[in-house]
Every structure is written in structure tokens, then in C-alpha cells.
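Hi everyone,

Forwarding the result from last night's run.
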Amino acid sequence: MSKTVITSDKAPAAIGTYSQAIKAGNTVYMSGQIPLDPVSMELVEGFEAQTVQVFENLKAVAEAAGGSFKDIVKLNIFLTDLSHFAKVNEIMGRYFEQPYPARAAIGVAALPRGAQVEMDAILALE
């Protein structure tokens, strides 16, 4: 099976040895996105703004792959403070409709560049 690299200039450029996403067959594996503004490559301020920026970054990569949030079958959320979980749910409700993707929310000690939230996802395209 061949692999295709997916990139979007509407999402932050990779800051390491990885691709924004890889498509293998009809499945797209999206790398973790932190709340970097894709133009300035600077972290946005505040938890809600960071969460929105992460969703916008994921959306840009999903669209570059030919998909949308409706195609996400698995979403992983990494939080440095699990007390923000209710806010993540609220913001996620702005981006997703039922049926919602499978999801994990994981508390972590730290994230790159001091981010408070990171997410990655798997899309299943038709």
C-alpha cells in the first residue's frame, strides 16, 4: 500500500521529523496539532483560544486530505489540566455532529512549546 503525504499551508508547518498527515488507502492519520497560529507559528494565548486553534488546524489538514470532521473516526485529546475537559466538550460541540468520533482524553505532564492542549485524529475517507 502506498503512502501519501498530506500538507496544508492553513495549518502550522511540522516542527519536527513528521508529516502533518499520512494517507494510506482510505485512511488518513493526522499528526498531533498544538495551538500554533499557522502564519506566525506562535502559540495562541488562553485555553479556549488554544482549543479552537487546535480544531482549526485539524480542520485544515482534514480538508487538505479531501475530508472533513465528519470523516474523523478517532480523536485523541491531550490536556495538561484535565479540569478543562468540560470546556473541550463544549468547544468540540461546535465542530462535530452525531455520530461523534471515538475519543480519548488523556492528562499529560507537558506538551510541546508549553501548549495546554494537543489533538490528533484518524479519518476514514470513502
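The longest helix spans residues 47-64.

Cheers,
N.
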